[in-house]
């Protein structure tokens, strides 16, 4: 598959190399030709000097044959303009933009443009390291208000089946980590001592679900 990347900074250059190492063809656009020095000497992708939202530069990079586009420059405005041009003008639906402002990122998510927000991601990772207990957010879809979380479990939940966990927490069990493997559970799968549990929850109920799982379960299941 062919991918086009806007911005040859640390993120863009790393992404380009990783895609090429997986066997994909890559074109990378940057307004500063010196930025291409970040790429290794054996990089074989196409280098285009220009603006990532310029239609001629995008065509030169092969956007009309691309299966995906990533806007990774340091400017929110440039990234979102480029993402919309690629999606609306060239019809590429697999588009992602790096957006530093979390509030703006949520707006663009609702417009159907996937975003990566370094500020939110970094804060979540630091919170995860600082706080031993509590929900660890692994993924949030702001467009639909759904979050994937790892939850800290009170031992009284061990022995309960997935159907009852979902009923009590009003969530969905995404998967269970057991003996180093990911288990995709059935409704009658029973939670065992030592299991790690990931739930899909409504975003606004993240901490409510964690409080439920932290406390002794009262029901006779």
UniProtKB/TrEMBL annotation:
GO MF terms held by the record: potassium ion transmembrane transporter activity
RCK C-terminal domain sequence ranges: 134-215
Keyword Isomerase found: no
Annotated RCK N-terminal domain residues: 1-117
SUPFAM superfamilies for this protein: NAD(P)-binding Rossmann-fold domains (SSF51735), TrkA C-terminal domain-like (SSF116726)
Protein name in the entry: Trk system potassium uptake protein TrkA
Keyword NAD: yes
One CC-aspect GO term: plasma membrane
